[in-house]
Amino acid sequence: MALFGRKKPAAEPLPLVVLAQRTLAERGVETTLDGPPGDPMQARLLGADGQVYLLANLVAQVRGENEERRTAIVRAHFDRMLQAHREPTPEELSADELRDRVRLRLLAEDGADPTDLNYARPFAPGLVLGLCVDYPTMVSTLATQTLPKLALGPDELWAMARFNTDAEAVDANAEIAPGVHLVEGESLFIASKAVNLPALFGAAPFGTVFAVPHRHLLLAVPIRDADSLQAIQTLAGLLVRVLGDEDAGLPGGLLSPHLMFSRHDQVTPVSSFDHETGELRIEVDERFQEALEQAVA
């Protein structure tokens, strides 16, 4: 007879989808699963009241955490979300409340958000501009059918959204290498500041090369002289590091894997990214070539 029992193996952590469903059930919200149970990036939880709970944002938050921390993070996430459901709907907000809360936001054209965004404005290949309402505990993306019901007309709504996104606070705005600027923060609208690059970096007569890999980060090189060529190479290397950093992840999911070139209110991609090899290639089109030649002249 053995004197010592065999040590029990550590329990396997609950799959995130199961943990999310259990957490919601503890709060009186019964849900059904829509999508693959083993892939929280694609799975959705459907509440009996029609509410949809996406899990992609939780994936990055719980990565690498122990079971106790995972459970705490998921509980806090849904507590905030359920509190947010008690906020007034966008249609119930007054004109002044909308002026304070509306934001402009860059969104991936093929993102997981099920909101009807037929009204969204194109920004660059793969990216569109949508409108959001910023509540204390969540951000609500406005749907096409909601816009006619709001207290503000479309022109003022878009104008105030851009003004508020420009004014959104950042945690850091620094030149991290010669000519290379980094802007980041907790706000969900940091990358969306790419809509008005001069507000961040001043005039750039030859345009700006920038990257928005996820919603909390904007990397940029305003093209000003011949030294900008090396800065663009440095920027490309930084972007590859961000895209390949599995530990940090991409909060909120991938926004764009490309370098973009902005000049005269026109934005085009100037790189290609191979997701399998992690290689990024800078591609110089006619507009970009002209800007570079003018900068070094």
What is the compact description of this entry?
This protein has 297 residues and is an alpha+beta fold. The protein has 3 domains: 16-84, no CATH class; 90-167, no CATH class; 172-296, no CATH class.
Describe this entry's structure for a reader.
Helix content is 30%, strand content 24%. 31% of the residues are buried. A six-stranded antiparallel beta sheet has the order 8-9-11-10-12-13. A hairpin with a 2-residue loop joins β5 and β6 (127-134). The longest helix is centred in the first third of the chain and has 18 residues, at 67-84. The chain has helices at 16-26, 56-62, 67-84, 95-101, 154-167, 198-201, 228-244, 286-296; strands at residues 31-34, 44-47, 52-54, 102-108, 121-124, 127-134, 139-141, 172-177, 180-184, 208-211, 217-222, 259-263, 266-269, 271-274, 279-282. The chain has eight helices and 15 strands. By secondary structure, the protein is of the alpha+beta class. It folds into three domains: 16-84, no CATH class; 90-167, no CATH class; 172-296, no CATH class.
